[in-house]
Write a structure and sequence with these properties.
It is built from ten helices and eleven strands. It is of the alpha/beta class and 285 residues long. The strands form two sheets. Strands 9-8-7-6-5-4-11-10 form an eight-stranded parallel β-sheet. A three-stranded antiparallel β-sheet has the order 1-2-3, with no helix packed on it. The longest helix has 19 residues, at 164-182. It catalyses: (7,8-dihydropterin-6-yl)methyl diphosphate + 4-aminobenzoate = 7,8-dihydropteroate + diphosphate.
Amino acid sequence: MSRIGTQHGHWVYELNGGIRLELGKRTLIMGILNATPDSFSDGGRYTQVEAAVAHAAAMVEDGADLLDIGGESTRPGFEPVPLEEELRRIIPVIQAVRKELPHIPLSIDTYKAAAARQAMEAGAHIINDIWGLKGDPEMAAVAAEFGCPVIINHNRHARDYNDFVPDVLADLLGSVEIARAAGVAESQLWLDPGIGFAKTYENNLELLARLSELSALGYPVLLGTSRKRFIRDTLSLPTWELAFGTAATVALGIAQGSHIVRVHDVREMKQTALMTDAILQQIKK
């Protein structure tokens, strides 16, 4: 159970283990830790617990404020992983990282309620659901039970939009209603525009250009653009050379109100966030 204090544009979370997490004071960096053999970016590099812990520690050293641990790739065309296999991948990693880095909040990247429950019991603090509480009817109840922050990611089974950005916002608010109905405190909800999920190249660019419309809803916003295909397609570069392109999207997202950025290249994005925050502080004076 986490305790929350909120002010306009500022949220303070007291998480399990005595961890304090503040949103809105500065941009937070969420480091991506993939315990998967088939991630689009770093598949197979951190499937062993020792390697995963070492990478987690390196990301924290580089400036990560929290870590997102996933055991199933969500790249386009991914093959679903059985629950038992997902748990085999994530639970030892969560336990080991929590032991090694007890001061760092951990997010579990899953759309399965049973996986989220066991991850929370193993030491995770936050649920990150790529289906925005719509993929598993029990997910919202798990979030309510643990009283934890939950990241609502925008997603659809088809790109059947009538009016793209308003439709995205409406979908996200639909997920908010699911959470409310299950008893999740509204201050526990973080919104993710779902860049790269059920969106065309043009959709992704438009959503980034209009991200302030999502921020205007008044919820914390998490942006996940790191190394995604629309950046690769724009720059015509391989996945591992997309740090500069990612940085452009990160700066733009922060300028439009994003509170957290989910990234692979922690050191580079930390510098990007610090510089962008410094400029925005001058604008606010």
